[in-house]
Amino acid sequence: MPRFTARHPLRVLGVGLALALGVAAVPAQAEPDAEPKVRIFAAASLTDALNTAIERFEAGHDVDVVPVYASSSTAARQVARGAPADLYFSANEQWMDWLGEQGIELAERADLLQNRLSLIAADDETASFTPGDGTPLSELLADGERLSVGDPDHVPAGIYTRQALESLGEWEALAPRLARADNVRAALALVERGEAPRGIVYRTDALASDRVHELGLFPLDSHPAIRYPVALIDPPADGAAEAFRAWLGSDEAMDVFARFGFEAAGAER
């Protein structure tokens, strides 16, 4: 069955209604001077960097790029349910794999960026703390305090967090004390507002906030590599989505991402 019917049920319904009423169904057309529009569904941790990258791209191209940010899991589910997305930019490979398993055609898929997992605090009482150095992370939490994380059941940052804590032998002690957020930016916000004294987010999130500071990074071998794959999804024929996808892998775009703490996927550490 063509994917048109799955991704655009309201449009199909509109055509059928027009025919039933005896009215010619004429496809809506963009204004002659309207800019092509590209919709990208992206992980919340990409917000600041991708917004800046989009501004740079739009400055040199007559294209309107519209980002939609959510946890990678939420964004993937929205696309699978028919949300009008031209690209999907995930914070882990598993949700990109899942999207392909739902029958969504993924084109020009590639791992673009990589990140680190960071322990953060809202106060400056603890100058530094290296997870895995022998001191339990739970010692940073007083009685009744919780550790802010992306929900380990579906949010990539939370999934990496669980893997890291399991690797360090701290998951069982900390699992009951987690403040689970719907995405990594929500986990960051809990620490920024003082609702949780400590949190685990991506390093890029820690660097993006002036209300938290980074205590330390989790060991690279405590969890799988944090990679960000991107792919085209049923792009329109005008070529705008393909052009933006190609630009995202350019040196110009990588310079933007590097300013926000991202590294190119596969870069040596």
Please give the structural blueprint.
Elements: H1 3-7, H2 9-20, E1 37-43, H3 47-60, E2 64-70, H4 72-80, E3 87-89, H5 93-101, E4 106-115, E5 117-121, E6 147-150, H6 156-167, H7 171-174, E7 178-181, H8 184-192, E8 198-202, H9 203-208, E9 213-217, E10 226-233, H10 240-248, H11 251-259, E11 263-264
Parallel strand pairs: 1-2, 1-3, 6-7, 6-8
Antiparallel strand pairs: 3-10, 4-10, 4-11, 5-8, 5-9
Helix pairs in contact: 3-11, 4-5
Keywords: Metal-binding, Signal
Signal peptide: 1-30
Protein name: Molybdate ABC transporter substrate-binding protein
Structure characterization notes:
36% of the residues lie in helices and 22% in strands. The chain has helices at residues 3-7, 9-20, 47-60, 72-80, 93-101, 156-167, 171-174, 184-192, 203-208, 240-248, 251-259, and strands spanning 37-43, 64-70, 87-89, 106-115, 117-121, 147-150, 178-181, 198-202, 213-217, 226-233, 263-264. Helix 3 links the parallel strand 1 (37-43) and strand 2 (64-70). The longest helix is centred in the N-terminal third of the chain and has 14 residues, at 47-60. The chain is elongated.
Q: Calculate the mean pLDDT score and round it.
A: 87
Main beta sheet, described? 6 strands, mixed
Class by alpha and beta content: alpha/beta
Radius of gyration: 21 Å
Number of domains: 2
How far do the termini sit from each other?
Answer: 46 Å
Count, helices: 11
What is the H-and-E element order? HHEHEHEHEEEHHEHEHEEHHE
Lateral strand order in the biggest sheet: 2-1-3-10-4-11
Beta-strand fraction estimate: 15-25%
* Unreliably modeled segments: 1-32
What is the fold-level CATH name, i.e. the topology of the largest domain?
Answer: D-Maltodextrin-Binding Protein, domain 2
Total strands = 11
